[in-house]
Every structure is written in C-alpha cells, then in structure tokens.
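Open question from group meeting: does this chain pack into something compact, or does most of it stay loose? Before anyone orders reagents, we agreed to write out a predicted structure and look at it together. Recording both the input and the output here so the notebook holds the full record.
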Amino acid sequence: MLRIGRLELDFPVVQAALSGYSDLAMRRVARLHGADFTFDEVVLDQLALRPGKHQRRILNVAPDDHPVGGQLMGSEPDSIAQAADAMAHAGYDCVDLNFACPVRKVLARGRGGALLSRPETALAIVRSVRDAVAGRCPVTVKLRTGLDDTDESERRFFEILHGAFEIGIDAAIVHPRTVKQRYVGPSRWDLLAHVKKHVGDRVILGSGDLFCAEDVGRMLEHTSVDGVTLARGCIGNPWIFRDCRALLAGKPLPPSPDVSEQGRTLVQHLAWIIDLHGERRGCRIMRKFAISYAQLHPHALKVRDAAVRISSPSQWRAFLDEWYAPDKD
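Structure tokens returned:
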C-alpha cells in the first residue's frame, strides 16, 4: 500500500510527470500494463489559467484517467495557487509542485529547481497552494537535493522539505541529485535513505535511475522510501509496471514482451495518440515513443532508424508490418 493523503493505492510505483511524454495516451498505456497512479505532463501555471487549447487540454480529465496527478511549475504564489485550484476543480486527484526541474530556461525564470535557493518563496507557494486546494486533493512537492553540493544548498533543501511538511503537504518526491548535476552521474541513494530516515513517518517517494523492476526493488530496500516514481525508465517500456507488480508480490518476473506483444502495444498507443492529437500531429509525436519502444526489439538500431522517418498513417502501417508482425519474433 501507498497512502498519499486520502489517496490509498495498492501499488507503490507511480508514473512520474514527464514533459513532452506523459500525456493521456501514455498514461492509458501505463495503466494497461499495471500502473495505478500516474502524473500528467509538467504544467506551467500560466497555461492552466490562460483560456485556449492548452487550458482546455490541461483541465479536461478523462473519466478513465484516475487516479491522476497534475504537476505545476511557476514562481509566483498567487498564480500557481489559482492554477492548483483550477486543477483540483477539474478533478485531478493530486497536485504536485515542481521544485526540481534543472532545465536552464526554467531556472532562468526562477521556476523549478531555482526555488531550492529561495526557501521563503518556495514555502509561500506551498502555503498558497495548500490553502487554495483546501483539502479537495492531496498536495505533494517534487524536489532535488539542492542546487549544488554545498552545505548551504543542503540546508535550504531541508528547510523547504521540513517547512512543506509543517504546512501540510501529504508527500514529497525526492530525486537525489542536485540541480547542477542534472542527470550526470548516479543518483545518490544513500542520501535518499538519509532523507527518509530524517523525516520518519512522513511519506517520501524516491526517484532516479530506475530502469527495471530490480532497480525499484533495490531502491525500496536500500532507502526505505514509501514508494517510487518512474520517469525515463517507463518511456517505451510500460511493461516495467507489470514487472514491478510481480517482483513486489514475490513472484517470478514475466518474460520480456515478444515482438508481436510490443506491436500490439504500439498499435494501441498510436491509436490513443491520434485520438488525442489528431492524425497529422499524432503520427509525428508517436515517433519519439517508437524510438524508445525500439530498445526492446531484437533489431533495436534498425527499428529506431526506421521509426525516425515516419510521418503518416500509411508509413506507420508499413513500419508495423515490417518490424512488429508475429513472424518477426
């Protein structure tokens, strides 16, 4: 079990918020393969407030898309609180605040990981969002462990973490790398274990370097965190959720999906993407997913090279017939 506020989940493995990836189509595929709780893409607070197609997409929660979390990013307590209120009203089951993104243009605007250097602003955002949501859904925070490896950065991280729990957040998602590290070098699971020990019974979800079920099992055992979020490790590999369920239930891992099973998932994913984004745009968006799916194929490099050239439904049909027919196993 994993409990985040009033959310009671039977599975402690969550699909993370992934910019450019975790749209409704990807979330549906993840649920099809065993995910329980999933996050939408990272949302800029202003897009949730500005009338238009982006706002309509963000605030349209499908009936089959529960439980789902919305992750918000911004720098102003008032606007991010208004966006959180809109998301809670729209039916999101959790609102998460991103204080972790290491992308340079995000940092330059004082958002994401930049807030780790501004505890007062970060905690003002947490307080405003908590007040705006008013108990309608859990509030969580996504953090890295500081801007850099200095003692001052670590002190600010713990100031924000403790302050957020005192304000009343329901859980924290901690990626044990600094903002400066981005994704270079291994994530520091020993530091994650220290964080969990430090906060005691408060709920911590771990993140970082989880690419297979065995990684998830090792993180849970090594750090004692309450759950994990899967990010890069589940792009193009929704079967990781199925594998994690088996591992955590003490069952043998299922065999890797054969080519025909991969193909069936690709076909379903493509159909959902086209339904969501339209045929022309959906065919282009699906290419990046196909590149990731290709890593599981026996001819990974050839399949990847073929995927990058697809731009139409007829090319998708030819691609699937050539590489994912049952006789390709």
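Observations to bring back to the group:
Strands lie at 2-4, 7-9, 13-15, 38-44, 68-73, 94-99, 139-144, 171-175, 204-206, 227-230.
Residues 259-277 form the longest helix (19 residues).
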